[in-house]
Amino acid sequence: MSVPVTHDDVSVRTRAILARLGVDADLDVPRSHASIVARSPITGGNLASLRTADASDVDAVVADAKAAFAEWSTVPAPVRGGLVRELGELLREHKDDLGALVSIEAGKIVSEGLGEVQEMIDICDFGVGLSRQLYGNTIATERPGHRMMEQWHPLGVVGVITAFNFPVAVWSWNAVLALVAGDTVVWKPSEKTPLTALGVQALFERAAARAGVNPAVAQLIIGDRASGQALVDDPRVALLSATGSTRMGRAVAPRVAERFGRVLLELGGNNAAIVTPSADLDLTTRGIVFSAAGTAGQRCTTLRRVIAHSSIADELVDRIARAYDTLSIGSPLNSDTLVGPLIDAPAFAGFQKAVDAAVADGGTVRAGGARVDEFGEYAYYVQPTVITMPAQTDIVKHETFAPILYVLTYDTLDEAIALHNDVPQGLSSSIFTTDLREAERFLSVAGSDCGIANVNIGPSGAEIGGAFGGEKDTGGGRESGSDAWKSYMRRSTNTVNYSNELPLAQGVKFT
């Protein structure tokens, strides 16, 4: 176990970081007023109390964003890319501070906090290049003397609702692409991570000043569920991008659809790895341990199910259990820590409930399964847990946001793929094999039904160059790389007649 840190240490460090990032918000709003309390899962202590936006605040922010869109949408895209470039440079300058703030507020270990900021930097680099590559198509037309083409135009105001586990990176995926596309952005972060949002917003406003841009093109709302609902229901919000639970997505999607808005949903994941007899078990074990125990199991891409061939399952479980014994659990601010805390008490309750349910279903706990209680009453650290299961029961099909890894066995690849796909979620997936046929089968239409399918790496973690998202209860959205930028724009198909005639399509005559 790593050495605990005191709440006073965390609180003092947090205030110093916020000052260096340029945050000037009132961090000590009286609790008697409507306020959001920022806390650190490292100690369970409170860090700040912030004013909660009400409906009138949301209305005003969206109105500002709508007004800013009128001008921003006419700015040439490469010039819009200049703003993103300035943001990327500021993120580079303040990577250590912002990464530490992610660790303090979300509980990520040092390398993961820094990695999240690096992901923001990477998407800024991607966005700068994208600002010169918003390509349309020229389309063959059947009419002589005509030209047909497609153009892409800015969509409008983009609302972004983010979750606690990636408190800044997911905002950047959306905001960078939206800004380059010519949209304006209104961000409502998780109530569990408001301070990281304040830090990012302060850096963005400095970037806007450097670029000579109206800062209203990207604004922040520190609010509760009611604030988010106001953003969801506002008809001026052309696209609502929401990251969170499937339950949240089921509530958001019909509300936006009722007003004919667009949604981009990144919801639950229940990700699996198939391990075949030919797999390199050294590589497989390393891939599984990070994917299952990293971020204390609080990634949407966390590995939650291993489907191992019956001939190697026992050896694989033994290897994973031995690796888990070496993991350092404790304060994520300590450089030797590999597993930090769960975000809060409800997350711990979910962990306990899932372990109990799995055992009741006939599961056997092979590693972990308990709370690590030397970090205080209000900090929730748990042992990464491995449970072998006789079948894929309801609890295995349920996403528990904690480091619980269920292990199932199979005898044929068809059986393994059927088990893999027999869950409601469809985000990320992987297979460990050295058999080319097995790898290609898994990647084919008859294989994984997820939005992300990997070979010989775990399902957790993604580079910004590829589109990120999943199918089924994961929501179907795509963010970050590839052509995900099209979600933030509207398509216009244009036909130009440069002849002196007026032929109609399909040979229609009207004379």
TrEMBL record:
Keywords: NAD, Oxidoreductase. Residues 34-491 form the Aldehyde dehydrogenase domain. Pfam families: Aldedh (PF00171). SUPFAM superfamilies: ALDH-like. GO terms for molecular function: aldehyde dehydrogenase (NAD+) activity. The active site is at E266. Its EC number is 1.2.1.3. It is an enzyme of class 1 (oxidoreductase). PROSITE patterns: ALDEHYDE_DEHYDR_GLU. It comes from the Bacteria. Belongs to the aldehyde dehydrogenase family. Homotetramer. This is aldehyde dehydrogenase (NAD(+)). It comes from Rhodococcoides kyotonense.
